Amino acid sequence: MTRRLLPLVPCLVVFAGVSAAEGDGFRSANTSEVSPGKPFGISASRQVVIQGLIDLDVVNRGQYLTGNREVSDHAGFGYGRAELGARLKPDEQSSVTVSVAYQDESGAAPGGTGHYAVINEAYVDLRDVVDFASLGLKAGRMPVNWNLRPGHGAFLYDSRANHPEVTSWDGGQVSFSGIEHVQISPFVYAMPDSGTMFGAESNWEPGFSGDLRLFITGLATWERKSPIRAVDSTLSKDSRLVYKSLTPADSVATYDVGFTVQVGGVEFWAEAATQRGHLNSTVDLRGRAGTAGLEWAPRSPRLRLGMQGDYRSGEGDPTVLSGGPYPAFWSGTSHAFLAPWEGVDDTYIVESEKYGEIGNYLAGPKAYGLQAAKLRAGYTFDERGKFSLDGIYAFFRTDREASGTNTVYSYGLPIYSYPVAGRKFGQEIDLTFAYRYNFNTTLKLFGGVFLPGSGFQAVAPRTPTAMDMIYLAGGNLLVKF
Which range of residues forms the domain containing residue 351? Predict the structure, then answer.
């Protein structure tokens, strides 16, 4: 679906108009002090919560496209995102959320092509629908994030995936909670890139006494025209990834189940998914994926340790997808697991959509699956949680041997080419130092290095490739209110 981008001034006029529509409450002599994140009364039964954020990044990275320090392949730049909105609660049974957002690289000329604020959220949340206390309805442009673990990107579906300007999807969701500890939510969304997704989610969170916590969830979706993207090797340059769209999959059905168990300071989680569908009229889809992990806070919550494994199937048969972007005359079965809306961001270089995500090199005509083993450690230096240091080590490999060609140049002219192949995609080490200035503001300094393997050389979008260190360093200032 193509979203219309609205200039900033009309967006603010719309926002102001919605607020003004609340009536004479704004002109009342009984005014209230507005505090960040706290509601203030408009009238006896109405409230407004002003909310938003400022998210600023400065980043320097290199060798993303080649892994070759002899090639000019580096860049330094900044990101900026601002959101401003309000949640209006006219009564106890309903609320309306409206927000605008602006996102761009630092230094971009305002008012140029694409440099506009957009309506980021505009949805209604209703309770006690048709006087039924267990029935709710959300409709409009709303954020969607199906994740097992708060604060982490979703394994399959996240409206913030691919670092978009609009971090919400248009659609509707009905929720039913008439069964004790169970919530069932059917939904339909008009996806970006003109696709449509139907499905239902079911959550069960039984009540236990003591330190035991259990959460089980199931998800079934059916998506039409699921997008398939690949890195454009021609337009990508200076460690900046540019994507091209391939022919979308005709239909994809995804079935996912996951759970988390927490006992005291130990948390275990697992999630598994399988896909059935049609790439086109002659190629069937049979993908599968999974993730599982453990986090442990030994003796003190200030120390955190963890481990995790990720799996995603690839094509499996290189003869099916080896000739280009999915011609219609192919026949057979593709085992590639399609996840265009995943939001996994455990590592900065391979997985973070905001900072690069070179794991996307495995997508496209040959559709390799990415597998990972990860070790985490974190420590909070003070009781109030103001200073913390987190690190992660990840080893990545492909589901089968990746193959490609490396070309050697001299004075800008190709001299000779030779084949490269391997399953080892590479290893990444990241460190993040965070300073929590106050409840709303956090400052982070972060960095990471990726040591490429032969699998990276085989799929890197630009040549000549090598196995030199790929790096990222940056800082982030986030203010949420």
Answer: 65-77+127-480
